[in-house]
């Protein structure tokens, strides 16, 4: 399943790249992209575990850039 | 400026107000009598006002295992400066770092906004008519087949067909075409366009998710996830750059004082300079921003580029292959030659138009259109209307000349041959050579490129009309512009007959033409060209996507005609021309070249300045001021430069 999320207060391009890297390393994530320009995030992951994976995504992002909020 | 930025600005101003008198007093020597803890505390005030959040974020970063982020580096660098008792410098570095960050965030927001505005084609609501009243609903909730009302000035929310009303529709947001398009009952209209002055009632033919506007937005949004090689290079580079510079800073702070003796102070100061420069922000922001700007500039002229990688490929395009029909030619058929035998041209054309008057065949329509065109051009139509038709019954309501179909009787279509009808009581045959043979009529075979209609009246051959595909306006200029833009070879592929293909290629000035190809052969031809170019040069294929989706995906760059092309083609293509104008290809090549130029300028500039200041810093020739410039100053200049990509014409 592929899902798009809006991001709020994503302030630095380097952090976006780091977030993308970190999300890709989560198990079950097939692909992820974090766009600093559009302030959006696209995640492609296992259907069955999607909610679980999203929880992990949120915590990973909070580690990289605590100011950035993911709008669900 | 948003709230956060305003807050930051207020803090910066406050810090300045405290800092400046301190610095003046310091320079005047009035701090000499004070002990160092007092001076330290005095300077700590503006430092914390300007940079408390940096220190807070740095601490949080360490807790979360994000050691090499810019906050941490700035904190360590300024602590270092305090450590070697350069209080004034420490505050200044923090202050200017924040000024630079603020300016950078402002510039990025602005540019992101101006690109977003370009793509502001998303309709917010649709008007649905219910019991004679209009109700605004989310376009997402409108099912196919329902009727929506589009008021003057509103954005058309969904793709559909006009049922009633007439208006001029502004398609510029989608196609870059400034001339409004007419919409009348029966016409298809696409979402994202802005309605002109008339009220339109539209039957919805596609759901919102499948409508043009959603598809375009999706393409553009996904564009930034397909990264160019340079972009990936920069991301990789950034991953090694920061740790490398930090390692160098540690080395610089520890080894020389141990090896050479003397104090640590001077070397720590130099190491701090390294830390300030170690953030790769100038590159990490400006490179994607340039690509985004280039994609934005392309979409402003009605060309969708599906990713930075394709923009990069476009700039290296050396060979372009065109499909003929729908790309260089209109794919609509027009009368190109009239050769009468013993009658006048007008007579021949009118007879043909009348005989084919009831037929729906595209060829019949072309002949009728040619007659209408000729009537309008000759001006005789207006005289005729004035003299014989005072009530205007001969003209249709649009003021177009209309055929008097009462002169035609007993029209019948003979499939595979043509038509047979009585025109003014005389038997007229119009069709192919077979029809003439079947009626034993002697005729001169015609060899022109195109479809030939033979005509006979009362058993006697009266001439031929040739119908052929017309070349698109601007197709010739498009080829010339591409050559000027540095494209080395232009090739045309077509399934059409040799004579037709070569005639078109000669008129357009193409370098190479391959005719009578089956769709599969086109792939083979493109593969041959790819083989010949293997290496850096890129091969593009431009087509309308009917039968050539495989070729579109096989070529390095697939360019599809958006309004005429099929959904499959738009899906398979890397670049979509919204208004099917081949001239836009040269324009987008120019945009891509400029974008790549800007990207290279930024990379070279940022790396050169950073390298220079690092060297100067190591040698002790640079101060903290130069370091701050090499970090934020360079970022800001690179961002401003990146914005030029958006303004490419």
Secondary structure elements and pairings:
The complex is a heterodimer of chains A (72) and B (649).
Chain A: E1 2-8, H1 13-25, E2 29-35, E3 40-45, H2 50-64, E4 69-71
Antiparallel strand pairs in A: 1-3, 1-4, 2-3
Chain B: H1 3-27, H2 36-63, H3 70-83, H4 87-118, E1 126-130, E2 133-137, E3 147-150, E4 160-164, E5 167-170, H5 172-175, E6 181-183, E7 188-189, E8 194-195, E9 200-204, H6 212-223, H7 229-260, H8 265-277, H9 281-300, E10 303-305, H10 308-315, E11 317-323, E12 329-340, H11 345-355, H12 362-378, H13 380-388, E13 408-414, E14 418-423, E15 426-431, H14 433-438, E16 451-457, E17 460-471, H15 475-484, E18 489-493, H16 498-508, E19 512-514, H17 519-533, E20 538-543, H18 549-554, E21 557-561, H19 567-572, E22 575-577, H20 583-619, H21 624-642
Parallel strand pairs in B: 11-18, 11-20, 18-19, 20-21, 21-22
Antiparallel strand pairs in B: 1-2, 1-3, 3-9, 4-7, 4-9, 5-6, 5-8, 10-22, 12-17, 13-14, 14-15, 15-16, 16-17
Helix pairs in contact in B: 1-2, 1-4, 2-3, 2-4, 3-4, 3-8, 4-9, 4-21, 7-8, 7-9, 8-20, 8-21, 9-20, 9-21, 10-20, 11-12, 15-20, 20-21
Written account of the structure:
- The complex is a heterodimer of chains A (72) and B (649).
- Chain A is α+β, with helices and mostly antiparallel strands and 72 residues long.
- Chain A has a single domain (2-71), classed as Alpha-Beta Plaits (2-Layer Sandwich), CATH 3.30.70.
- Chain A has two helices and four strands.
- In chain A, strands 2-3-1-4 form a four-stranded antiparallel β-sheet, covered by helices on one side.
- In chain A, helix 1 runs antiparallel to helix 2.
- The longest helix of chain A has 15 residues, at 50-64.
- Chain A is globular.
- The two termini of chain A are 15 Å apart.
- The mean pLDDT of chain A is 82.
- Chain B is of the alpha+beta class and 649 residues long.
- Chain B folds into four domains: 1-116, no CATH class; 126-216, Distorted Sandwich (Calcium-transporting ATPase, cytoplasmic transduction domain A), CATH 2.70.150.10; 217-328 and 472-649, HAD superfamily/HAD-like (Rossmann fold, 3-Layer(aba) Sandwich); 331-470, Calcium-transporting ATPase, cytoplasmic domain N, CATH 3.40.1110.
- Helix content of chain B is 52%, strand content 18%.
- Chain B contains 21 helices and 22 strands.
- In chain B, strands 10-22-21-20-11-18-19 form a seven-stranded mixed β-sheet, with helices on both faces.
- In chain B, a hairpin with a 2-residue loop joins strand 16 (451-457) and strand 17.
- The radius of gyration of chain B is 35 Å and the shape is elongated.
- Chain B starts with a helix and ends in a 7-residue tail after the last helix.
